[in-house]
């Protein structure tokens, strides 16, 4: 019952927005912009012929590869920069120069380096998600409470034990936040890249539906699917925040 109370406000707002959408289309007698029901029927059409599932799989595959590659590099690099002052002072200026560059700006370079294929969006996803994770991981190391380190030093623990039993668990909340931000940006970037450089995926589905007879029901349907998958990905990352190994730092 309590869970229903939590989701009821959001469901109510969504229902009101859908009703307004339907009313505006009906009053305006738009011949192009679809009603919510037309969007549902168009999306079901794509699901039944398998097109939707293929495009979803292609987008998720690219995001998974690029994001996991970013995690494998960003987390160790962030830990190193946070722990070693020399590494931070050397690499942080480079990081702060590259970080503000829009991932979309890398599209021409990605196509030049990797051509038109899966490698280009994977590279773009990597570039978009690696920086938030490096920044959050580095900040997490810098904000570790000194009492944890003093306690470990008093017990004479080794450097390996210090990292595995103190530093990494203490930094995990910040790492999860960085992963959550990076995954959200990665999902945005793959859709944009698929609109430009690929012939599969949800981004391509949207642009192809627009070009193939102004099928705006499929355009809106693709946008809704993108939003729902993004919500699911964010929810999965939030579940990780509830793990005991992540929450121990804040325990009383």
Mind summarizing the main beta sheet? none
Strand content: under 5%
> How many strands?
0
> Which percent bin holds the helix content?
over 70%
The sequence of SSEs as H and E is HHHHHHHHHHH
Question: Structural class, from helix and strand content?
Answer: mainly alpha
Extract low-pLDDT stretches: none
Separation, N- and C-terminal Cα atoms: 29 Å
H/I helix tally: 11
Gyration radius, to the nearest Å?
Answer: 22 Å
Q: What is the 3D shape?
A: globular
- Global mean pLDDT: 84
Please give a structural write-up:
With 252 residues, the protein is mostly helical. It has eleven helices and no strands. The protein has helices at 2-28, 36-49, 51-83, 85-98, 107-114, 119-142, 146-154, 159-197, 202-211, 216-241, 244-247. The longest helix has 39 residues, at 159-197.
Q: How are the elements arranged and paired?
A:
Blueprint: H1 2-28, H2 36-49, H3 51-83, H4 85-98, H5 107-114, H6 119-142, H7 146-154, H8 159-197, H9 202-211, H10 216-241, H11 244-247
Helix pairs in contact: 2-10, 3-4, 3-6, 3-8, 3-9, 5-6, 6-8, 8-9, 8-10, 9-10
């Amino acid at each position: 019952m309590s869970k229903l109370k939590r989701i009821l406000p959001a469901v109510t707002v969504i229902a009101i927005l859908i009703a307004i959408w339907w009313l505006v289309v009906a009053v305006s007698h738009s011949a192009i912009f679809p009603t919510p029901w037309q969007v549902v029927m168009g999306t079901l059409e794509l699901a039944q012929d398998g097109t939707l599932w293929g495009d979803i799989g292609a987008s998720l595959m690219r995001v998974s590869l690029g994001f996991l590659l970013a995690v494998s590099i960003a987390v160790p690099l962030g830990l190193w920069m946070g722990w070693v002052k020399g590494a931070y002072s050397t690499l942080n200026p480079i990081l702060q120069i590259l970080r503000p560059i829009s991932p979309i700006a890398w599209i021409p370079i990605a196509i030049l380096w990797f051509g038109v294929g899966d490698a280009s969006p994977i590279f773009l996803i990597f570039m978009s998600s690696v920086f938030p994770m490096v920044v959050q991981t580095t900040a997490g190391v810098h904000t570790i409470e000194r009492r944890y380190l003093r306690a470990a030093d008093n017990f004479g623990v080794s450097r390996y034990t210090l990292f595995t039993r103190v530093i990494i668990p203490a930094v995990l909340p910040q790492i999860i936040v960085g992963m959550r931000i990076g995954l959200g940006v990665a999902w945005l970037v793959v859709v944009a890249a698929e609109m430009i450089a690929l012939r599969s995926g949800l981004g391509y589905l949207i642009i192809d539906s627009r070009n193939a007879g102004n099928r705006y029901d499929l355009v809106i349907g693709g946008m809704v699917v993108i939003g729902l998958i993004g919500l699911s990905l964010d929810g999965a990352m939030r579940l990780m925040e509830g793990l005991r190994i992540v929450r121990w730092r804040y325990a009383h």
